[in-house]
Amino acid sequence: RSIQVHVKDIRCTSTGVGIMGMLGNKGAVAIRFSLYNSSVCFVCAHLAAHQENVAGRNADYRNIVERSLFASSHGSAGKDAADDLADELVMPRLGAGLHSHSELDILSHEMVFWLGDLNYRLRDDLSAEEVIALVERGQLEQLRALDQLICERSQGRVLQGFEEGLLGFPPTYKYQPDTDRYDTRAEKKLRTPAWCDRVLWRAQAAGSIRLLQYDRAPLHPSDHKPVFAAFACSLKRVQQSRQRQVFEELRDSLRSLPAQKPVAEVSGLSIAVDGLLFECEQQRSLTVANKGGGVLTWHLEPKLGDPEGVLSKRWVAVSRSQGLLLPGQSCEVVVSLRVGRQTAQQLNAGKDSLDDLLVLRVDQLPDMHVLVHCSFERSCCGMSLEQLVCCAGAVCEHSFGEDAATELGGPKMSIPKELWRLADVLFSGGGLREQGLLQEPGDDQEVAAIRLALDRSTPFPAQSSAHSYAAVLTSFVGSLARPLVPASLHPSSEVEAANVRPFARKLLEELPPYHYSTLMYLLAFLREVLSEARHNGCTVNHLVAFCTNCMMFTTGDDDLSPDEVQRRTLRMEYMKPVFLYLLTAKSI
Length: 588
Fold this sequence. Notes:
The protein has 588 residues and is α+β, with helices and mostly antiparallel strands. The protein is 30% helix and 20% strand. It has helices at 54-67, 85-88, 128-136, 141-144, 148-154, 240-255, 341-348, 385-388, 404-407, 417-428, 444-456, 466-478, 500-510, 513-531, 533-536, 540-551, 562-584, and strands spanning 7-16, 27-35, 38-46, 69-70, 104-105, 111-117, 197-203, 209-216, 227-233, 264-267, 270-276, 282-290, 296-301, 316-318, 322-325, 330-337, 355-362, 368-376. The strands form five sheets. Strands 1-2-3-6-7 form a five-stranded mixed β-sheet, covered by helices on one side. A hairpin with a 5-residue loop joins β17 (355-362) and β18 (368-376). α12 crosses α16. The radius of gyration is 28 Å and the shape is globular. The termini are far apart.
C-alpha cells in the first residue's frame, strides 16, 4: 500500500502464438507500469510444448517480443499558445508520464520479468528413469547441463539479455496430481522430468535487480510445481524540489534571452505512398529545424473536435509528437503507415480513404499541415464473403463497395477462390502432414509473399512452408469483414449436451448462403487436417480453438471494453461443443 500511489501508466497487452502462430492456446499476457520513475514490465508466457520442439519455443519467444505492444494513450500532446517563450517551456514528463503518449514494446522497459510455463525440457541424453534417479540423489548439476533453455540461452538463440538464478530445486514437471511424486504410473505415458516453469529477468542498468530467492513451491495445483522468485530492485525517484529548482532556473534563463521571432524550417510536409500493402508497414519522415537564434518549441495538435485528442487516423503513427530545439538543432519525426485489418475492412467497404492531415504547431507561427496521402492495393484480407465470391480475377484490380454482386454482375463462385487456393496447396503439397502444422507460426516474409500472390492471382512463391500457408489461411478467415458465424447465431448461454446437435443444425440452416458454403468447406478441410493427426500432432481441441477464434468475431476490432471482451469469451466457450460436434460428427 505504501507504494500504490506511485504506480502509474498501467497498460496491458496479450499476444497469441499458438494455433497457426496467432491463437491463444500459447502466447503471453503482459502488464507494464511506472513505479516511481522506473518502467517495469511483467510477462507471463506459455510456450510451445513437446520435448523436441525447441525451435518452436524459441520462435514463440521472438513472436511475443516482436508483436506485443502497449498502445499509447492517444492523449493530446498539444497546448494553447503561450504569451512568451518561457511560458512555452513546460515541466518535462518523467517517470509515469515519460512514455504515456508512446507505443511501447516489452524490451523498451528498464526492468522486465519473464515467467511462466516456458516448456523447455531436458535433452534426451538420459532416460526418464535415469533422470528421476539423479533427482532422488540430489545430483542436479548433471541435469542442468542438459536443460534446453540454459543451452539455448548460452548460444544466444532465445531470451537474449535475460538472467536466471541457479536451478537448485528439483524439476517442476511432471508430477502425479496432488502428490510430490513424479508421474510414473503404468497407465500414463512416462515423461522425463524437466524445469518447465521458470522466472527470468532483464535490467537496463547493471545491478538494479538482485535475486534474493528462487525456488519451487510445495503446492499441488496440477502436474506442475509452481516456482517463485524474490528480488531487490533499485528504482529511480526524482527529487521533486530539485527538479522544480532546475526547471525554474532554465525558465529564468530563457526569459533573459532577447526576444526573437521563431524561425522554423520544416521539410516533408507532404507524404505520399503509392500501393500500400496490407499489414506491410512503410515509413516516411519529416524534419523540424530551428534556424533562429532562440529556443523553438513544436508539437502536433489533436484533430479539431476529437474528444480523445487523437493526433492521426488509426493507420498513421508518429515516433514523437512534441519537442524543444535549441538554435541550430533539428529533429526527425518518423511517420509509420500501416493498413491493419480494421482499416482494410473500412477501405474495402468504401467507408474510408488513406488520406490524413496532421497539424503541426510551431511556437506562435501559423499552423502547418502535414498532408498524408496513400493508395491501397486491395487485399482479400478484410473483404466480405459477398465481395470475394463475386471477384473471379485479382482482387487488387477491382474497386467496389459493399454491393459487389450488383457492381460485378452477380456471384461467380460458391466459396472464395483464395480459400480454395490455400487449402489446395496444403492438401496437394503434403502440408497436412507437417509436424506442428497448427502450432508453429509462419515466416513473416513468406506470409507477405503468399498473401500478395492471392491478391494478384499470381503463382505462389516457391518453397514456402506449410506453416506460412496456414498462417495466411488463419489471417484470411479471421479478417473477414463479417464473421463467418454471425453474432446473431451465437449461443447466449451454455448449450446442453442433448441440445448440441439440434443447435448445430439450426445454425447451419440459418447461415447466409455464402457463409454456409464457406463454413462447410472449411469444416471438410479441418477434418482432413485431423485425419493426419499422427503426423501433424493436431488435436480436435486445436481445431475447436481455431474455429472459435477465427469464425465468430472480426479480429480487426481491437477497441473493446473489458465487459465486451468478457462477453465474447463466454460466447466462445458456449460455442465450443457446437464446433466440436461439427468437426467430429459422422453425419451432421
